[in-house]
C-alpha cells in the first residue's frame, strides 16, 4: 500500500440555492475549480477526476466536467453518489486507487447545484407514481427514497428529529450551536480566501449571517410543525458549489519535489440506521479512530458536516473539552450544504485549520442520506525524504 498525499484543494464560493448560481450548471462551476487546480499545481496530466454528485441530472457529470475544463480526453472520470457523503467518498476512492498503484494523480471532490436539481417522474408501473406529485406533476419527485421503511420527502428532517428526541436534545441547545457556527464562519473569511475560486463574479460565501442572534434563531420556522425541534435555523440550507482536492502518489511528490499539504492516513465508511442518519458522522469517525488506535484528544482539528445541529450537540456532549477543535472555522449551518461537494469542503477546511492553527492530525466526518457515514484521517506532512 503506497502513501497518498493531498497537494491542496480549492472550492467555489458556497452559494444559497436559487441566487447567484441559479443559472450556472454544476459542470460549469466545477470546471472552473478543475482549471484553477491544474494551474495552481502545474499539473501536466491527471489520471482521473472523481466527482461526488447527489441531485444532478445523471450521465456521469464528472466526465462532462472534465471535458468542459479542457483536460485531455484520455483523462478518466467517475461520478459518485453516496448522497451527502459523496465528496468524501470520492476522495476515499481516489486514495484507494493511488494507494493500490493504479494512478499517480487524481482530482477528487464534488459539485452540486440544488438550484438546478431536476424534477423527476416515477414510471407509471412504479407504485410510487401514484403517491407523488411534485410541482403538481403526477409521479413527480425531487427527493429519492433512502429507506425501505420510509417514503417521505422530509425523511432527512424527520431523522434529525428522531435523534434529537432519542438523545433528549433541546431546540435551545441546537440553536446555540447554529449561532456559534455563523460566528466562527464570519471570523474565518480571510483564512479561507486563498481556497476560493471566483465564479460568475462571486468570490465570497453567501450564506453566512454575520449579524445573526439567538432571538432570530428562536423565530426560525419549524418545517415539521409545532412542537418539533428542527428549525430552518438549526438545520443547514441547500446550496450550490463545488470543491476538489489533488491527490498524488509518493512517487509523484518525490519526482516533482513537492511539499504536500497532508498525507491521508486512513479512510472509513459505515452504515447506520437509515431512520437516524445523522448518527453516521459520529459512528464512522469512532470506527476510524479505533482502527488507528487514536482518540479524539489526539486530533488537532475536527471537521464534521453540520447538516443538522443535533450532530454538533452529540459531539460536544461526548467531548466537551474538544469544542475549540471542532469545526473551528464554522460549518454547514453557516456556509450551507451543497450535498455532493460537502465532503471535499470539509477536507479543504480541515487543511486550512491545520495550517492556520497548527497541529499534526485532523479528521473529517460526514453522514449521508440512507444511513451512511464517511470519515478521513489526515496528517500534515513535509516533503518525503
List unreliable stretches of 5+ residues.
none
Average pLDDT reading: 97
Main sheet: strands, sense, barrel = 10 strands, mixed
Radius of gyration: 20 Å
Q: Structural class, judged by helices and strands?
A: alpha+beta
Tell how many strands the DSSP assignment holds: 12
How would you sum up the global shape?
A: globular
- The DSSP helix count reads 12
Describe this structure in words.
By secondary structure, this protein is α+β, with helices and mostly antiparallel strands. Helices cover 32% and strands 19% of the residues. The protein has twelve helices and twelve strands. It has helices at residues 26-40, 61-68, 86-99, 155-166, 171-186, 189-192, 214-218, 250-255, 280-291, 309-318, 332-335, 342-357, and strands at 4-11, 15-16, 48-52, 76-80, 105-113, 120-121, 140-141, 239-249, 262-271, 301-304, 361-368, 372-380.
Describe the secondary-structure layout.
Layout: E1 4-11, E2 15-16, H1 26-40, E3 48-52, H2 61-68, E4 76-80, H3 86-99, E5 105-113, E6 120-121, E7 140-141, H4 155-166, H5 171-186, H6 189-192, H7 214-218, E8 239-249, H8 250-255, E9 262-271, H9 280-291, E10 301-304, H10 309-318, H11 332-335, H12 342-357, E11 361-368, E12 372-380
Parallel strand pairs: 3-4, 3-5, 10-11
Antiparallel strand pairs: 1-8, 1-9, 2-8, 5-8, 6-7, 9-12, 11-12
